[in-house]
Structures
1.
Amino acid sequence: MKTVTGPGVVFRSEAPRLLLAVTLAAIAGWVDAVGYLHFAHLFVSFMSGNSTIFGVEVGGGNWTAAITPVLAIAAFVFGSFLGTLTAAVTGRWRMPAILALEAVLLALALALPRSSGVLAPPLVPIAVAMGAQNAALQHVGRISVSLTYVTGALVKLGQSLAEAILGRSGRWTWSLYAVMWLGLTLGAIGGAVAYKRIDYDGALMAPAIVLASLSLSATLWILVAGRSRNQAAKRTFR
C-alpha cells in the first residue's frame, strides 16, 4: 500500500507521534482556557498574548496589573528551561519524565491556595508546566511542531498551502498544521466548558490525570520496545 508523504512526514509511520502531538496541543488549549477564565483573562501558555497585555498595562500606567503577565512569562520561560534540562538528563525517558513533571506541577497548582489575584500562587506552576511541555515532543517526522501555541502553525499552514499550489512541497503537508490548530482549539473549548460546568479544580484535575496516564503509557511503551529490541538482538547472535 502506498504511503502518503510530505517533506519528511510519513503520515502512517508517524501516526502515534502525530496523535500524541495533537493530544498535547489539546491539553495546552484546555489548560490555557482554564487559566484565561480563572486568572482574569491571563494566558498560561500563549505568551504572545501576555506580552501584549504587559505592553498595554505599561502603556496605560497600570504598573500593578503589569506584574501578573510578567510573572506568567517568567514562569513559562523557566518551564521551557526546566523541560529542556529534563529532556537532556533523562535521554530516551524524556517523554514520560516531562509528562510526569507536568502532571506534578498541575497537581501542585491544585494544592496551592485558590486565588485569582495579581500574584495568584497557582499561576506559576501551571505556566511552568506549559513551558516544559514544549520539550516533550518537538518534531513529527522532520517537521517541527509547537505544543502550547499555534501562531507559528497557522503561519506554516498558509505557507505550506501556497507551496503545495506552487508544487514546492507535498500536497498534504499543510494538514499537519491544520490538525495541530484544531487540536488546541478543541482543547480550549473543552477547558472552557469544564470550567463553567464543573469548577476550577475539576477542570484542572482532568489534564493532570491525562498527563499522568500518558506518562505511564510512554514508560510502558519504552519498556516493551526495549525488551523487543533485546530479544531481536539475542536471536541475531545465536
2.
Amino acid sequence: MLCCLIVGASSMAQVPESKEGQLATVYLDDGSRLFGQLQTITPDTVYLFSAVLGSLPVPQNTISQMRYMGEPKTAAGDFLLPNPNASRHFFSPTAIPLNKNEGYYQNFYVAFNMVNYGITDHISLGVAAVPFAWFINDGFNLAVTGKIGYKLTENLYGSAGYIAGFMPNIAYGGIGFGLLTAGNTDNNITVGGGYAAILTEPGTEYEESSQAPVLNMAGMLRVAEHFALVTENWFFLDGGITLISYGGRYIGDKITVDVGFVNNGDIMKEIVIGVPLLGVVIYL
C-alpha cells in the first residue's frame, strides 16, 4: 500500500494553484530545475520571469513538480533552497498545509513508515505502518491520518486533523488535534491541543481504555541554507507525562534528515542527553 501511494504520487505533475508574483522553483522531468518569479499559469504552460533569461514559458507536461519558495528574507538571511518539509516538525505536523499534488515519505528508526499526500491545497491524507511487524503473530498494524489547513493571515496558519491506528487483538487508538502555526516555512512556532484515546487488549478480560487531553508545542528555526533547529514537545495532562525533543534538520533539495533526542525527567536519570531520534523525509 505504501509503495502504491509513493508511485502514484510521484507520477503526477505537481503544479499548485497560481500565485502570481511569488518566487517559485520548477523541477523538470529531466532532473533540471528553474528559479524565477511566477508570471502566470495557463492550462498547459507555466510562465516564469528570470532576471537573466527574461520570460520563460515552461510546458506543464515537462514539469515533475513546482513549489513556491519561503519568505525571500528570514532572520537567518536569504535562502534560495525552499524548505521541503515545512509541514512537519519531528513527528507532529505544523498547521502549514501541503499544496495539491505534493507529498512525502517519512521514516523513523528504519521501522516506522508514513506517506502523506495533498488531495487539495487544504486537505492532506496519509497512511503509516511498521511493516516488519506484519510478519509477527498479531503484529499487523496500520494507521491513517488526515489534516485540513488554511493560511489565516500573512504569517498565521490554522489546521485540524486526526491520526488513528490499530493492531488487532492488541490495541486501538487515536488522537484528534487542532493547531496554530505562527511564522513562515523557514521559521515558525506551533501550538496545539487534542484528545487522545486508546483501547488495549480489546475483547478480553484485560480490556482497558484510557483517554487524556494533550498539548503540543513545537518550533523550527532555519539558521543556514541546509540546516535548521527543531524542537517538539508533548504534554499528556491526565497522566502527567511530558516528552520534550530537540535536534537539528539537514535540508536538501528533496530530502530532510532529522537527528535529535527525546527526553524527560525519567529518561534523563538514565541517559542525560536523551534517547536518540533519527528521521528522514523524502519529498515526492
3.
Amino acid sequence: MENDVLIDWNQEVADLTPEQQQRVKALIDELRQTRKAQETEEEDKEDETEPPPSPYYPAKAHYERADIMQIIAKFPKNKKWTFQDLQNIQYFPYDIRIKIELINRKIYIGKNPKLRHQEILSNALTDVGSFVKKNKLGRTYFAPTALKIDDGTILKPDILFISVSKYDSIKDDGIETAPELVIEVISRSNYKKMREAKKKQYADFGVQEYWEIHTTKRKIIVETLDETTQEFTVFSEARKTGTIKSKVLEGLEIDIENIFE
C-alpha cells in the first residue's frame, strides 16, 4: 500500500500549512484503510466461493493418491492429457498436493514420498535456497511446482532454481521457461525409464544443470548441459563423503554429509 499512495508527501505537500498537512495525512490514512477493507472483503469472497460439483470426484477436505487414480480411471486409457486438463477443476480438485506429471500427453501419478525422501529434499532445499537468497540470484521452488515444457509435457521437479532474469516466466500455475537448475531426489519409487525420460525433457528444454540425489546410495551427481550434443555430462559427484560443486551457482559447494544427515 505504501507504494500506492496517491500523493508524494515530501514533494507535493511540503508547501502546505501544518494544519493542511494534517488534513491531507488524515485523508491518505482513510484511503488506505478503505482500500485495505475492500481487499480483505474481496479475499473473503474468493475463499467462500465453492466450485461446482464434479462428476469425477466427491468433495473432500483431503485427497490421497488413490483418489486421483480413481479419477483417471474414469477417462479412456488412451486419453491425450493436456495442461488444461490438469487445471480443470471439474477433472481434478484444486490445489491437490499429489505430484501429477505429463510426458508427451501421457499422465503419471507420483507415489507419496517416504519420510527419508522429504528429509533429504529439505536439506538440499535449505543449502541451495539459502545460497540463492544470500547472493540474490533468483528463486528456488519445490514440488509440486509445475514446469510447463509444452501443453502435453508438465514436469514437477523436486527443486528448481530460476534466475532473476527469468522472473517474467513465473506464473501462478507454474514456470513457463527453462530453469537454470533442476534437482531430483531419487528413491526406489523412481523408475529408471521414467527418470531418463524426464532427464531428456529437461535437456531438450534447455535446463543448464541437473542434479540427481540418490537416497539409498548416498550419492549426488551434478551434470551440466553440453550445448553441442544437448545432453548432460558429469560436472561433479560424490558418494557418502566429499563435496559437490555447482557450475550454474558459481561458488556453491556442499558437503554431501549435510544432505544425508
